């Protein structure tokens, strides 16, 4: 590889077929696999370990920045440069790739080669991936927009297909019906569309100017007005919401790949999976002698071909077959393996109902740490709050609730109205409704406290921020 290679991780998507673990505020890339690593961490490592990598660029929602950066820092042992493109809202893959291409052109030059990788896919055969990327870079340096096609081994109806002749793309095909998928598999001329791409920054920008000029023009305007900051590992480019909402929403396939005359494909066998269902995720766990796959705490008797995930409570199953059971603190999924693709209907129904269960878990990640809802009822709510060393919540006020804070471990620096005080382990303080207050962790260990909220309304939108180091005012 002669050109600088910039892996671009697309970290978004709800992962609705993996509910109740994947949720809007905690999407699929953050799912932790049985080996302890998340899909996001695995995507970063396979990109960062490729030859000639100059920088890894991550495009994600700005609400996920702190959590994403924390996930990457845990596995970035070689100090690879990492930069971020932070979107205020999702506008699909064309907008994310356009912004990434402009960033790469400005920082590294238009001849730099981008390798676009979804952060929620899995690749098992890394040597085969390296070979495929090497072939793709050669094609990209010749001016092609390269996609990676996976040689199919089943008549899968959940993927788009690519008809090809060697590296030549004949056509892109939408997700087929089962009979058509069988025909594609038998012909040997079709590949699964992996959603992975490789191209020079200048090449993809030129094709966007040709095929979606309104989109690329709007993205350039957003980058011109973006807030760019230096961070520990690279840069953080935050796009403004008013500007980014003007960008048309489209996929890179529809916007460019299916229209361009300069598209090539690399057929490959790289152990690829989009982890698009509980069946796919369950297949990562070794089965027992009855075909059951258990991730966590479960006991099965007289049961066959079941997948169980439970990280907390014990799940017991007797005399059942072909079931998926996923237990989380606030929701349980029970499904036939044959209906694994239909889980998204539950997710969509919860969203239409306005339920928080599609959006977030009981444990919610914030830039300063996490909070977990332990109990709630009419007029009260109890939370466990954990604040990272040196971090602080915003200076804020609530109209409808008062709060009692009890420190369990660590030391809290508390602003309560006009007073500032240190609250030690086994001490407490009371925040009346209407008081400005702030919680800080001045120590080197995590601060853990219990918060008891009492009031007529306990929603998270009852908050007025006056100062915030994370720019949320």
From TrEMBL:
GO molecular function annotations of the record: GTP binding; isomerase activity; mannose-1-phosphate guanylyltransferase (GTP) activity
Enzyme Commission number(s) from the entry: 2.7.7.13
Protein's organism: Cupriavidus metallidurans
Catalytic activity: alpha-D-mannose 1-phosphate + GTP + H(+) = GDP-alpha-D-mannose + diphosphate
Domain of life per record: Bacteria
Domain Nucleotidyl transferase: 7-281
CDD domains named in the record: cupin_PMI_typeII_C (cd02213), GDP-M1P_Guanylyltransferase (cd02509)
Signal peptide (from-to): none
Domain (MannoseP isomerase/GMP-like beta-helix): residue spans on this chain: 302-347
Keywords: GTP-binding, Isomerase, Nucleotide-binding, Nucleotidyltransferase, Transferase
Mannose-6-phosphate isomerase type II C-terminal domain mapped to chain residues: 354-468
Name of the protein described by the UniProt record: mannose-1-phosphate guanylyltransferase
Stored SUPFAM superfamilies: Nucleotide-diphospho-sugar transferases, RmlC-like cupins
A Pfam family per the record: MannoseP_isomer
Key word Transit peptide present: no
UniProt keyword Nucleotide-binding, yes or no: yes
GO terms of biological process kind: GDP-mannose biosynthetic process; polysaccharide biosynthetic process
Family of the protein in this entry: Belongs to the mannose-6-phosphate isomerase type 2 family.
